[in-house]
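User: Just a sanity check before I run the rest of the batch. Below are the structure tokens for the first item. I only need the designed sequence back.
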């Protein structure tokens, strides 16, 4: 075998960069947990001793943490003053939970997967899958924190307005809405707050998530919102003007059954089904890019195992519009279209 030394060195260089990224993900999560990034906001630069004192942490370890973050470009090091600065743009992404660019939740969900290492290895070997509810609780918490900013930025401003004639009823006519697979209820609560004249019910099969959603709704003092434990194939009701699935259809054990059930639960079969799914092209070769790598990776350890745990078809996070359309039309829907999209999501509308 003849080895191309240039290609080998290029690959090793890529690997070293990814070692730093992998370890950097853990220390970034630690920075989030300990409030290190937040403590750097509003300063012209802090020393390691100053940051340790502000956060009640050990100065020698913080010095190493800051050096790693500076090497990764997360903070800026001033070698003359021996201080570290968190740029405003980085602070927006790492500390501002109301920013559409907020990303800290992803690090929490990522750490959860390392905690589930043995379970994931077992599902790789057996193919029996790993249910959503069998993961570490960091996954649920991190997913909510990561998805919510995207919903805040787009759900009522862009996605619902892109649907066919439902926004007016939500605002004025008093629509009835089911949010299926709602998790901790971030999407449901956002809609309930934006459309107080409409009624919202959030459904999820994971009881702890529904309990958390109820707690959040109670804090918001919302009267037009309830949460119930139910599956996508048997949630109650047959008079919904809008049924919404946010980033969950591809995970399901029975997406075809879920599609048939949605059709039966729409009001007089004239309502609208909105599906928000990860952005994906239909061909694998067109998804071989940084975003596709993220989605395929998380899909192999979360999405596909979740579906396999229920003997499902394992659509995966990169199912794509063509495959999803086939399932929904086979269930009896006559109309299916891409209503809008973002760099991270495809938003579909299905109608009877």
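Assistant: Here's the designed sequence for the first item:
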């Amino acid at each position: 075998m003849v080895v191309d030394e240039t290609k080998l060195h290029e690959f090793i260089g890529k690997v070293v960069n990814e070692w730093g990224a992998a370890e950097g993900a853990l220390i970034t999560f630690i920075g989030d947990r300990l409030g290190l990034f937040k403590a750097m906001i509003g300063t012209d630069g802090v020393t390691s001793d100053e940051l340790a004192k502000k956060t009640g942490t050990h100065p020698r370890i913080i010095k190493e943490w800051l050096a790693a973050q500076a090497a990764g470009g997360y903070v800026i090091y001033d070698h003359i003053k021996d201080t570290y600065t968190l740029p405003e743009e980085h602070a927006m992404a790492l500390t501002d939970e109301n920013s559409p660019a907020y990303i800290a939740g992803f690090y929490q969900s990522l750490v959860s997967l390392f905690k589930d290492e043995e379970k994931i290895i077992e599902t790789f070997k057996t193919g029996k899958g790993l249910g959503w509810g069998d993961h570490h609780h960091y996954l649920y918490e991190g997913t909510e924190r990561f998805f919510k900013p995207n919903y805040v930025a787009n759900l009522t401003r862009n996605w619902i307005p892109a649907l066919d004639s439902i926004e007016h009823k939500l605002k004025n006519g008093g629509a009835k809405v089911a949010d299926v697979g709602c998790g901790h209820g971030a999407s449901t609560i956002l809609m309930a707050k934006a459309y107080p004249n409409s009624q919202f019910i959030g459904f999820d099969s994971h009881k702890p998530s529904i309990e958390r959603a109820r707690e959040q709704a109670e804090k918001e003092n919302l009267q037009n919102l309830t949460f119930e434990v139910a599956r996508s194939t048997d949630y109650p009701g047959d008079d919904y003007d809008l049924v919404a699935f946010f980033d969950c259809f591809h995970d399901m054990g029975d997406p075809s059954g879920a599609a048939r059930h949605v059709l039966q639960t729409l009001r007089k079969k004239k309502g609208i089904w909105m599906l928000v799914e990860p952005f994906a092209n239909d061909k694998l070769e067109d998804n071989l890019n940084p975003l596709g790598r993220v989605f395929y990776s998380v899909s192999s350890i979360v999405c596909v195992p979740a579906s396999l745990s229920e003997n499902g078809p394992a659509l995966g996070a990169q199912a794509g519009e063509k495959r999803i359309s086939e399932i929904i039309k086979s269930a009896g829907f006559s109309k299916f279209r891409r209503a809008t999209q973002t760099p991270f999501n495809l938003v579909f509308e299905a109608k009877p």
